[in-house]
Write a structure and sequence with these properties.
It is built from five helices and three strands, in the order H-H-H-H-H-E-E-E. A three-stranded antiparallel β-sheet has the order 2-1-3, covered by helices on one side. With about 160 residues, it is mostly helical. Strand 1 and strand 2 form a beta hairpin.
Length: about 160
C-alpha cells in the first residue's frame, strides 16, 4: 500500500510540474527558445565547430518557425530564416561565420523590438569583421574568429 501511495504522489507531482512548464512556455511565445538557439549557434562558432553550428542553426530554424507573429513578424521571420538556412546548409566554418554577420544584424534588430529575454542582452562588436553579435554575458568570445582572436571586440550596447 505504501509503494502505491508513493507512486501516485510521484505521478501527480510529475503531472503538475508538466502543466506548469507548459503554461510558462506558452506565456513567453517561444522567444526564449529563439534567443537560446541563437546563443547555441554563436557558441558553436566561437568553438570553431561547424557540425554543431549546423545543428544549432537547424534548432534556430525550428524556433523561428514556431514563434508567433507577435514576437517575429512575417517579414522578419523570412529574413532570419534566409540567413539561418545559409549557415545550416554548409559545413565550412568560414562560410558559416560569414553568414552569421547578417543573421546577427537581424537578431539585434529583433531584440530591440521584441522582448527576447528577461536577462540583459549584450550587443558586441568585432572591429576586424566590422560586425556585431549578441551574447548573454559581457565577456567577449568572438564568433567570427574563434580561438585565433577570441577576446577581440567590445560591448557596444545592453538591451534590457
Amino acid at each position: 500500500m505504501k509503494k502505491i501511495l508513493i507512486l501516485v504522489v510521484a505521478m501527480a507531482s510529475t503531472l503538475v510540474q508538466t502543466g506548469f512548464a507548459q503554461n510558462d512556455h506558452n506565456t513567453h511565445h517561444q522567444a526564449p527558445t529563439v534567443i537560446a538557439s541563437y546563443y547555441g549557434l554563436k557558441d558553436a562558432l566561437v568553438s570553431g565547430d561547424a557540425s554543431t553550428a549546423s545543428a544549432k542553426s537547424a534548432e534556430l530554424t525550428k524556433a523561428i518557425e514556431s514563434s508567433d507573429s507577435k514576437t517575429i513578424g512575417d517579414k522578419d521571420k523570412s529574413d532570419l530564416l534566409k540567413h539561418v538556412a545559409m549557415i545550416s546548409g554548409d559545413k565550412d566554418i568560414n562560410f558559416q561565420r560569414a553568414h552569421f554577420a547578417p543573421l546577427s544584424s537581424s537578431i539585434i534588430t529583433l531584440a530591440k523590438s521584441a522582448k527576447l529575454s528577461d536577462a540583459p542582452i549584450y550587443v558586441q562588436y568585432c572591429p576586424m569583421k566590422k560586425s556585431s553579435w549578441i551574447s548573454s554575458e559581457k565577456a567577449i568570445k568572438n564568433p567570427y574568429y574563434g580561438s585565433s582572436m577570441l577576446t577581440c571586440g567590445k560591448v557596444t550596447e545592453t538591451i534590457n
